[in-house]
Amino acid sequence: MRSPIPSRWVAITVFIFASVLNYLDRQILATMVDIWRTRPEFPFTYDDYGLLLSVFSIAYAVSALFVGWFIDRVGLNRGAGLAVTVWAIASFGTGASHSVHQLLLWRALLGVSEASAIAAVTKAVAMYLLPPERAVGQAMSQLGLSLGSGIAPAFAVYFSYRYSWHWAFYAAGFLSLAWIPIWLATARSIPPVAAPQNNQATHSFGLLRDPRLWTLMVANMLGMSVYSLWANWAPTYLVRVHHLSPPEASHFTWIVPLAGYLGALLGGAISWQLVRSGQTPVAARKRACLISAVFVLATMAVPLLPSAAFATAGMSFSFFWVCSWSANHYTLPIDIYGAGRAAFGGAALVFAYGVMQSLISRPLAAVIEQYGFAPVCFAFAWLPIAGYFLVHMLIADNSSSGSIPQSQLMESSPSKY
């Protein structure tokens, strides 16, 4: 009896669990900031946190293009397996650290390895899903990020208060290693829909001569600023503005990434329907980005909200729509360049995100320390819509890799695979 769920969606679901572990490893640190600040044996400041984010982001950005090329070159399975192994090692090293200087080393290694995550998901989506489905596939990757981010505060608090903060990072590393054999077994049993052409990966760096890729990168730096704000500073917002303790903040902040997943899913559904109604994939993604960016303007209202519960709702609404924007924007490289160079295209956006975050993290920490969150929320609210207009003006609606026949584009029939 044929399963009602196409096997390609099973494969994507298993792969997405790597994103859960990626953001679990990464976002434990956001909660650990205020835990460390209450413990004199491990002196830590907001400036130290800004420095850690900058170092992580620089490593993330510098390695992203090479990691994307590497995954295109060696294949999804080898590339993802090696990357997860390295970030598990970095998580163990973070847990064994006893100073900020040691943390810097291990967070840099984590940045190098975790630069692979979005590139690998982008390639998996390109290989396993049809064009109308791809933004939903990227939205599922947001589920992974959201689950990882949502679990991280409670995960960090549980181990830090019951055992030791070191074990929060050790446990995350063990979970990452456990994912590798599960994915390899899945990949052996479920073939991809679109196998990439072997010769394309060799020329991935040639995409840097394409002005469309640079347009996507700059737009990503603009739009993802709001994502970076709530992904890294939501616990601190509640601690600083509403005077919650880290355990109290963890009861609220898990809602923010969950809202992000739901927003990404809605964004993917919007562009799916637009493609099925006859719009090109690129035009559909752009329209969905515009709708999302308009709602992100509500970020300006978050500092006006009077309680921790209302502030969490405001952050969640903002994150909901920026993730809708992100799900569609990160699908554009697949639409334009196809499966053969999907990892490199996705890695270019990772590079842009890493550069943006490395540039803004310490200045952002200084502004928050001195002036609070109000000026940040007001300025950042406008950036996703600026990113949309840049893409709208410089990338044509008919940009397409043309790698999958139009008949499949309109049908998306699950019974064929």
Keywords:
417 residues, Growth Hormone, Chain: A, disordered C terminus
Structure, explained:
The model is unreliable at 402-417 (pLDDT under 50). The chain is globular. It is mainly α and 417 residues long. The longest helix has 32 residues, at 211-242. It has a single domain (7-402), classed as MFS general substrate transporter like domains (Growth Hormone, Chain: A, Up-down Bundle), CATH 1.20.1250.20. The protein has 17 helices and no strands.
Structure annotation, total helices: 17
Unreliable residue stretches: 402-417
Strand content: under 5%
Look at the structure and name the CATH superfamily: MFS general substrate transporter like domains
Number of domains: 1
Query: Which architecture name does CATH use?
Result: Up-down Bundle
Q: Topology, please?
A:
Layout: H1 7-36, H2 46-74, H3 76-95, H4 100-114, H5 116-128, H6 134-162, H7 165-189, H8 211-242, H9 246-253, H10 255-276, H11 281-296, H12 308-329, H13 332-337, H14 342-371, H15 374-380, H16 383-394, H17 406-411
Helix pairs in contact: 1-5, 1-6, 1-7, 1-8, 2-3, 2-4, 2-5, 2-14, 3-4, 3-5, 3-7, 5-6, 5-14, 6-7, 6-9, 6-10, 6-12, 8-9, 8-12, 8-14, 8-16, 10-11, 10-12, 11-12, 11-16
What is the compact description of this entry?
With about 425 residues, this protein is mainly α.
